[in-house]
Specification:
The chain has 110 residues and is mainly beta. It has one domain (9-107): Jelly Rolls, CATH 2.60.120. The chain has 1 helix and 7 strands, in the order βαββββββ. Strands 1, 2, 3, 4, 5, 6 and 7 form a 7-stranded antiparallel beta sheet that branches. The longest helix has 10 residues, at 21-30. It is globular and about 35 Å long. The model has no long low-confidence stretch (mean pLDDT 92).
């Protein structure tokens, strides 16, 4: 029996100046999410893990590389980019050389 997993969704920022923390927070709240902000030092690595919810992350400043070991993919996110990682998808992350500031929220099934 085959098990189908939802795909990771990346939304690239295509405008001029990337959105501010307050703009991103308000947008996520309009989506019914409860966002929170976090940051990390340069080159920090997050071990591979998965969650029972969809993880939504916006990069506000810096860069974050999301690793997806089961599909052998890496996605580099820059300021303004958004990634949606469905529940159960194994992922890790590597912070860029200048550090990173993100806004994150957990979403239940849509």
């Amino acid at each position: 029996m085959a098990i189908e997993q939802a795909a990771v969704r990346v939304i690239r920022w295509s405008g001029g100046q990337h959105p501010t923390t307050s703009v991103i927070t308000r947008q996520m709240q309009k989506e019914g999410l409860r966002p929170y902000q976090w940051d990390n030092a340069p080159n920090h690595r997050y071990a591979v893990r998965s969650h029972g919810y969809t993880k939504i992350v916006y990069v506000v400043e810096g860069q974050l590389e999301v690793t997806l070991p089961d599909s052998n993919q890496r996605v580099r996110l820059r300021a303004g980019d958004r990634v949606e990682i469905p529940a159960g998808i194994r992922h890790g992350a590597i912070v860029g050389a200048s550090g990173v500031k993100c806004i994150e929220a957990a979403a239940t099934r849509r």
